Queue: 3 jobs
Job 1
Amino acid sequence: MYAFNYHRPASLADAAKLLGGASDGKFIAGGQTLLPTLKNRLASPSDLVDLTGIAELGGISASGGAVSIGAITKHAAVATSADVKKAIPALAKLAGGIGDPQVRNMGTCGGSVANNDPAADYPAAVVGLNATVHTNKRKIAADAFFTGLFETALEEGEIITKIEFPQPKRAGYEKFRNPASRYAMVGVFVAETANGIRVAVTGAGPCVFRHTEMEAALGKSFSPDALKGIKTDPAKMNSDIHGSGEYRAHLVGVVAKRAVQNALG
Amino acid sequence: MTISVTITVNGQQETRDVEPRTLLVQFLREHLQLTGTHVGCDTSQCGACVVHIDGKSVKSCTILAAQAQGAKVITIEGLAQDGKLHPMQEAFREHHALQCGFCTPGMIMSAVDLAQRNPNPSEETVRHELEGNLCRCTGYHNIVKAVMAGAQAMRG
Ligand SMILES: Cc1cc2nc3c(=O)[nH]c(=O)nc-3n(C[C@H](O)[C@H](O)[C@H](O)COP(=O)(O)OP(=O)(O)OC[C@H]3O[C@@H](n4cnc5c(N)ncnc54)[C@H](O)[C@@H]3O)c2cc1C
Ligand code: FES
Ligand code: FES
């Protein structure tokens, strides 16, 4: 790691000010992605602004048919929250399947969403449930948030404050884990929402995406069989040492069926 | 630039001036000379560096000491009380759950956290929960046995 200055503000306003005043500042939440990046010297921020001392970024609340998760809420807290388990069990399951217990005790919801790793789990839930990303400046709809490989709609210095997940009629998540990293080779989040069926796929392509053909098919019949014969374009999939584009395209179909089965309970 | 970091380690409040980039594991090993916490991979994969922060297991190679400011940290050195091994340590000894012993401090710290959350874990739960800890020697079998026995002993 290169040297940096470290700050731990207690308010959002101070956090924004500290970042604005730094020559090349970066926010840190759980550090489970950022610290490995810094250790590899892939980034050399002048200042780290720790968000985890800001009380208003914490906590989980369920009301008005939605579950709101504060940005600094740990994966372990989401996985074990009675509110989340009751309202959106698929989301609790997703959080409980991230990494390992030690990663879940540090990693945060906001950090995962801000980072938009192509193989991360949370983006699938955000898009699948049509969640709203709240920041210190505005609200961003899921479909407009994830813009590309590690790219989001967040502006320089913008802070995710919470993610609001509308409660679906039913939802299911399934991931085919990379056995070494535990990230998703392919993860599919399926939800029957107030505005129809949504199918979000992570791990397979450079960025989480909606599978509109599957959404249409499940709209007609919400069952694993409805997905039979639906193809995914291998050319749009990631191809790396873990699996070819063809392999991932095939997995999308298999994993999506299991996600639907999970949603049916 | 250095910053002052205060952490309560194994019940004792410790304050050191450190560089902000100091990892918690460096704080423990190099500043406090508590070398029971190991560094196996330094890339958050192996779990040799697991300690508890406020009762929860975390990988101390992937946390800044500054992030633990004001927290209570327990390391492997803090488990035994009055010269008597913690029940989980005793179970590892009894069940021959170590060979070279390099992974053991982290395994035990993860196991204690696991047993606190799952007082009566099944074999499947133990194997699943130990996903973040790698052992190159034992093949895990005796570790799993030890964790189940240790959890039982912790229930009393
Ligand atoms: C061994 C291991 C296994 C893992 N397995 C998985 C897995 O299976 N699935 C998975 O999805 N993830 C996995 N992860 C990643 C983990 O979930 C991270 O915790 C997460 O991606 C980042 O969250 P963080 O709080 O650690 O963020 P940090 O590392 O602190 O930050 C990540 C990025 O987000 C920015 N950021 C953080 N919070 C905010 C905010 N509130 N507003 C704006 N920007 C912000 C930071 O500036 C930084 O650029 C794994 C990590 C490890 C080390
Ligand atoms: S040394 Fe920390 S996980 Fe390997
Ligand atoms: S006993 Fe040698 S690594 Fe586990």
Note: The interface with chain A takes residues 1, 3, 19-21, 23, 42-44, 47, 50, 53, 56-59, 62-64, 66-67, 69, 110, 113-114, 129, 131-133 of chain B (CB under 8 Å).
Job 2
Amino acid sequence: MVNGFAPATLQEALAIRAAQDVTPYAGGTDLMVENRRGVSYLFLSKIPELRQITVDDTCVRIGAAVTFTEALADERVPQIMRDALAGIAAPAIRNAGTFGGNLGNGSAKADSVLVEFALDAKLRLVSLSGERIVPVEQFYLGRKKLDLHSDELIAEILLPKTGWENYYYEKVGGRNALAISRVAFAGVLRMENDRIVDLSAAFGAVADTVLRLKDAEGMLIGKTVAEAKAAKEAFLSRYEQDLTLTRGRVSAEYRKAVCLRLLQAFLEKFGI
Amino acid sequence: MNGISFTLNGREVTYTGSAADRLLDVLRRDYGCTSVKCGCKEGECGACAVLVDGVLLNSCCVAMGAVDGAAIVTMEGYCKTERFAVLDRAFADLSAVQCGFCIPGMVLAAEALLAKNPHPTEAEIREGLSGNLCRCTGYNAIVNAVENAAKEGNGLW
Ligand SMILES: Cc1cc2nc3c(=O)[nH]c(=O)nc-3n(C[C@H](O)[C@H](O)[C@H](O)COP(=O)(O)OP(=O)(O)OC[C@H]3O[C@@H](n4cnc5c(N)ncnc54)[C@H](O)[C@@H]3O)c2cc1C
Ligand code: FES
Ligand code: FES
């Protein structure tokens, strides 16, 4: 075809990616709105390796070209992720939009990426010379800044199979359907023997990338619910101090207030 | 150079232009499918919606290279079906059409919904049509029309 390649296998796609100046194309919902001129697309939707969801001992592995609609219908995909997917746009966009494209677009408003941060997801990046497994926070560095080499493709998103069950997810947009996040929050709490062994609190759409304050998260780790309650005030003021937000369609003050409310609601959901 | 082959409303066609061209533009310009409307070119309005292998997509967000081998249905083809006749009657009965600009997309969104879920609740209908904007009729009449079509067309979906 003119100005495009539609390989049938991943190997073929990687060979084209290495040899030519092509733009990977998954669902097109970001690319076609951008409407770049004179590009040559590498169409990924016919590559079976990128279109499957599989489960191994520890991970749910989602192919980069799996659409949001497909993942929503798959019970193996963690519910926190499916909550986020259900809030994306409207059916026709979810039918096309993919996990790889959400990452590849490099926006801090990407709803599936927020959940990937909260779950410490890893990405499998592949090229002709091999593969790299990279934690999402080391991949997703800032607005349109990704640790992706020019010969690589995102192949899979690796989510933990368990450990996400105690979660709180909320997206605040301007309306119900077709709303881009103004602030989005994903929090996960893991308890063992009545103690918090892990806590993540990720904020989307408020800065150049998804935000997590790992030092602040650490303040509650190792504590019982009662101890966490006692430390709550200090915990919240730490976020008030350290969350550095940018102005978007709404003011930074508004976003900060919403972030803190969401953080509070997350703790309250688990009795803290 | 091989072209991009697909079926359009059941007819086999081959497109020899650029794989980066927009499906919306090609359907209107090269194949005369003017039921496919352009309201935004940003995926926001649903007026350009078509069925690709039975899946509702906004054709403004689809590049031609992505439809190689696909089966595309627009209102030009869908209007010949029994299911359309049911939706057509329901929309007419409830005066759910005013200027009509949004309607081809709206009806195809209803088809995509009913094909998956023949007896949707009101909330499910609203969700199914949530990507389709209508600037004149107001949504209640449209939602009621789809509800009626689901009842009348019992067994068709
Ligand atoms: C009306 C509308 C509403 C939207 N609402 C939301 C929303 O609520 N939440 C949200 O998060 N997003 C939203 N989006 C944005 C978009 O739908 C998502 O970002 C989607 O995930 C993009 O996926 P895609 O497959 O369509 O990407 P594409 O447009 O195909 O690609 C996007 C980018 O990713 C790159 N890419 C794609 N796949 C790979 C790969 N495997 N390896 C390397 N690079 C790759 C491409 O080169 C490109 O740079 C919306 C978009 C529209 C048009
Ligand atoms: S023209 Fe495609 S969604 Fe508006
Ligand atoms: S009838 Fe006019 S836009 Fe819907």
Note: Residues B 97-103, 134-137 surround FE2/S2 (inorganic) cluster (ligand 3) (CB under 6 Å).
Job 3
Amino acid sequence: MIPAGFEYHRPTDIASAIGILQQHGDEARVIAGGHSLIPMMKLRMADLAHLVDLQAIDDLRDIEIAGGEARIGAMVTQHELITHEGLAGVLPILREAALQIADPQVRYLGTVGGNVANGDPGNDMPGLMQCVDARFELVGPEGTREVAARAFYEAAYFTARGDEEILTQIRIPLPVQGTGYAYEKQKRKIGDYATAATAVLIGNGTASVAMTNLADTPIWSEDAGTALAGGDVEGAVAAMLGAIEPMADNRGPAAFKKHVAGVLLRRAIERAQQRAG
Amino acid sequence: MTKMHVKLNVNGRAVEGLAEPRTLLIHFLRENLRITGPHIGCETSHCGACTVDMDGRSVKSCTVFVAQADGAEITTVEGLVNEDGSLGVIQEMFREHHGLQCGFCTPGMITRAHRLLQENPTPTEEEVRFGMAGNLCRCTGYQNIVKAILASAEMLNAQKEAAE
Ligand SMILES: Cc1cc2nc3c(=O)[nH]c(=O)nc-3n(C[C@H](O)[C@H](O)[C@H](O)COP(=O)(O)OP(=O)(O)OC[C@H]3O[C@@H](n4cnc5c(N)ncnc54)[C@H](O)[C@@H]3O)c2cc1C
Ligand code: FES
Ligand code: FES
């Protein structure tokens, strides 16, 4: 399990990191926690001549809550996300979801930025970010731009991020007081990716629902949200089950996954409703 | 590929060596430094036998490039002994409570338990099980591992109180 050789870079600011990406084109890739990338490199499914480690860029590690939003630096780890009390106060769904990702060791290194930038349909954060209507800040040679999480995912491992862009932070509008939330995930064992997972927010006449690992991108369904906002749970479930496209794999046949998706969705909606108010 | 000069602090000792950046931390520890406490179980980030403490975090050293670890402080199971070389509290409790059979998972278990108890000195049984979920054991059925960690917590807290 030895990956192919590469040259290692550890820049201390974003501009230098982008410079290295520009210089080496698709021969270069950034590495954050490495807990998706290194397994791929070991399997030789990713072969890169240059790795640009983001660990020494301090700007990417901040968590800020101000002006009605939370700003989370791309290099914030899942462990830091779980232990940040301020964030748990305003966006408790992040902690609830992060606790269901992988295992403690993976969470100490795996980053939020890596989880959302990776583009693996199995990752939990992309669906979660679509549910909470996050925006991703991307910095590249042309400057800074923002892309909504709901518009970021194109296909498995294909996202709106350009090869020379770095995802620097995630901006999440704070849900109003009294918004109910739930993250539900079905997995075969601890440390497994989801057979199905769902993020739900309900409150104050609005609702948002997204699901994970049931298509080659996360699925956020506007119709499901609208139905749920109007109190129509069955309508919301039907809209979502119509939007997902699960494929048979070692987690089960498509029909089974659809069944699990329905069960999780009802469970999450019920829990979110109980918490709303 | 050219080798890089790697500097680490392992178990309180400054060490250095030459390694290709792609070298996994576990291989550097075991093969270059001959620190063979951390084991290689799966080499695919699943079993936790390779767990070491890196800058205050439990990490699977089969999923860290030595280049990423350059400059880090590492503690392995060898570093968890008392100053006089006798078994540290967690190690002693694993022996006392039969927290191992073949012992292959044990260095990872003990190193992980060390960090868990640093962060949560008074865990419940459920918290221990959740906190140890990244470490697999094929022998014990976990019962005695959990017992050993809960007993370690008590022992460490009693020692702390006695010292105050
Ligand atoms: C045993 C195991 C179980 C796991 N279980 C789960 C799970 O249940 N749910 C889940 O969601 N994940 C799971 N993961 C994946 C884990 O959460 C990863 O850490 C995460 O997907 C990627 O984060 P990273 O920081 O490790 O990114 P890396 O592996 O370093 O990078 C992943 C990809 O994103 C790119 N990238 C990273 N950061 C940036 C950035 N700032 N800007 C642009 N591109 C970037 C990299 O170039 C790379 O292509 C698991 C991993 C393991 C090893
Ligand atoms: S050897 Fe590293 S997790 Fe199994
Ligand atoms: S004691 Fe044998 S694997 Fe745990």
Note: Residues B 40-43, 45-50, 60, 62 surround FE2/S2 (inorganic) cluster (ligand 2) (CB under 6 Å).
